[in-house]
Write a structure and sequence with these properties.
Blueprint: H1 21-31, H2 34-47, H3 51-57, H4 59-66, H5 79-105, H6 108-127, H7 132-160, H8 166-191, H9 197-203, H10 206-217, H11 223-228, H12 232-243, H13 250-266, H14 270-273, H15 280-294, H16 298-311, H17 316-344, H18 346-372, H19 382-400, H20 403-414, H21 417-449, H22 452-471, H23 484-488, H24 494-504
Helix pairs in contact: 1-7, 1-8, 2-7, 2-8, 2-9, 2-16, 3-4, 5-6, 5-7, 5-21, 6-7, 6-9, 6-10, 7-8, 7-20, 7-21, 8-9, 8-17, 8-20, 12-13, 15-20, 15-21, 16-17, 17-18, 17-19, 18-19, 18-22, 20-21
Keywords: Membrane, Sugar transport, Symport, Transmembrane, Transmembrane helix, Transport
Domain Major facilitator superfamily (MFS) profile: 26-476
InterPro entries: MFS_dom (IPR020846), MFS_STP/MST-like_plant (IPR044778), MFS_sugar_transport-like (IPR005828), MFS_trans_sf (IPR036259), STP/PLT_plant (IPR045262), Sugar/inositol_transpt (IPR003663), Sugar_transporter_CS (IPR005829)
Length: 509
């Protein structure tokens, strides 16, 4: 959100940057929207290792697992199973593109409420599923739910948080995703031994949906969104609530009104505006960062963690415990990010986390190559299986304080108001699209590439770390309406935005 009127190339000083109780509570409630996405990521992998679930919907996997000659990497290679997991992502992709228009027309908060209700319906259908069609219908509704919330929530958090602490508040979304993953893994562990356990695991997704929907109903929309929709009195009240009753919010409100008027005067379709040359750096980041986040391999490891650990030698219960440990490590590291992201900056965390993840993926590939053999038919010993888990935990920690939270933060803070929801939509759609392709191909890739799968991800991690070092400017502490300055000063992107800065210096876009 804007924070007063700022000279574009002057020193950036955040007006009204104190943290109020209202801002903290509002941001925690909004960030809890991450629960539903996290719960779904965690629950899917655990349910797909439950024998009663496989027996009812995917009996061919059990037949394959019973064959003594099964390659450990190929046990779960089933297109029907991957369709169950990944149908959510196609629905999420479609929903996130629609959500751009919805968040502009209905507001950020109402889009979050809509997402929660849709997810609730999907969870109910999945819990009562009698056949694969019901399972996939439920997954599609879940996808619409997370598509809406993943689009609206990061924008909400960036617009409400004081500029100085925007990074810390925005990491709350990833923190709640992490809580959702851990809660789902614990529930899977508790229900795995029961014949109806999978129903309980899938149906309990209604709980986080109900929590976040009720929470969203109790908070007000962002001042930016209210101004955009012409509700100036409500916008002023929302600002006073966020900045404190005694704060002078007139300058900040005037800046938001000016931004909104500039956007309306342009009167162009945001999906066309975003492709203009001057927004090239923003667009490249909105596509590149979520794409790279997924090709770190993290979501794949999160959904398939129990399957993966079972494949490398843990029993079913041990595999679920290993997945819980992985989730807890990730959660702890997100907290680290919350405390350091506004002190050391985004680039520092991206580069440090990238190096850490690269080393771990190469090490995992090395351990698996040495212990299971090139064909993957040798059985891995317990000691080496634990070593794989330790390496995965160090990898998850690297992700948790870098690419995890920052991939939601950067796209939500770099765009001018008139294309902010559009930029976030593109970012979420790329995230879902990439996840869909990876989740469709991961089990087959694991079957054919074997340990090379981890080298595949390591290669991407090396590329993305170089990309960040060269092309992402530092955005910490900079008010949203002054963000143009960082692009103007950048060694490469400056040539794209200078024309805009010359013609509209001092204005916000």
């Amino acid at each position: 959100m804007a924070a007063g009127s700022f000279a574009v190339d002057g020193p950036v000083i955040g007006l009204n940057s104190k943290i109020t109780a209202s801002v903290v509570i509002t941001c925690i409630v909004a960030a809890s929207s991450g629960l539903i996405f996290g719960y779904d990521i965690g629950i899917s992998g655990g349910v797909t290792t439950m024998v009663p679930f496989l027996k009812k919907f995917f009996p061919s996997i059990l037949r394959k697992a019973a064959e003594a000659k099964t390659n450990i990497y190929c046990m779960y290679d089933s297109q029907a199973l991957t369709a169950f997991t990944s149908s959510l992502y196609i629905a999420g992709l479609a929903a996130s593109l629609v959500a751009s228009r919805l968040t502009a027309v209905l507001g950020r908060r109402n889009t979050m409420v809509l997402g929660g209700c849709t997810f609730l319906a999907g969870a109910a259908i999945n819990g009562g599923a009698a056949n694969i069609a019901m399972l996939i219908l439920g997954r599609i509704l879940l996808g619409f739910g997370v598509g809406f919330t993943n689009q609206a929530t990061p924008v909400y958090l960036s617009e409400v948080a004081p500029p100085k602490w925007r990074g810390a508040f925005n990491t709350g979304f990833q923190f709640f995703i992490g809580i959702g993953v851990v809660a789902a893994n614990c529930i899977n562990y508790g229900t795995a031994s029961h014949s109806w356990g999978w129903r309980l695991s899938l149906g309990l997704a209604m709980a986080p949906a109900a929590i976040m929907t009720a929470g969203a109903l109790m908070i007000s929309d962002t001042p930016s969104s209210l101004v955009e929709r012409g509700k100036l009195a409500q916008a002023k009240q929302s600002l006073l609530k966020a900045r404190g009753k005694d704060a002078d919010v007139e300058a900040e409100l005037a800046e938001l009104v000016k931004c909104s008027e500039v956007a309306k005067a342009a009167n162009r379709e945001p999906f066309l505006t975003i492709f203009e040359r001057r927004y090239r750096p923003h667009l490249v980041m909105a596509i590149g960062i979520p794409f790279f986040q997924q090709v770190t391999g993290i979501n794949i490891i999160a959904f398939y963690a129990p399957v993966l650990f079972q494949s490398v030698g843990f029993g079913n219960d041990s595999a679920l415990i290993a997945a819980i440990i992985l989730g807890l490590v990730n959660l702890g590291s997100i907290l680290v990010s919350t405390f350091v992201v506004d002190r050391y900056g985004r680039r520092f965390l991206f580069i440090l986390g990238g190096i850490q993840m690269f080393v771990c993926q190469v090490a995992v590939a090395g351990v698996l190559a040495a212990t299971t053999g090139v064909s993957g038919t040798k059985h891995i010993t317990k000691g080496y299986a634990i070593l794989v888990l330790v390496l995965m935990c160090i990898y998850a920690a690297g992700f948790g304080w870098s690419w995890g939270p920052l991939s939601w933060l950067i796209p939500s803070e770099i765009f001018p108001m008139k294309i902010r929801t559009t930029g976030q939509s593109i970012s979420v759609a790329v995230n879902f699209g990439t996840t869909f392709v990876l989740s469709q191909t991961f089990l087959t890739m694991l079957c054919h590439f074997k340990y090379g799968t981890f080298l595949f991800y390591a290669g991407w991690i090396a590329s993305m770390t170089v990309f960040i070092a060269l092309f992402l400017p530092e955005t910490k502490g900079i008010p949203l309406d002054s963000m143009i300055a960082v692009w103007e000063r950048h060694w490469y992107w400056g040539r794209f935005v200078k024309e805009q800065v010359r013609s509209r210096r001092g204005n916000s876009h």
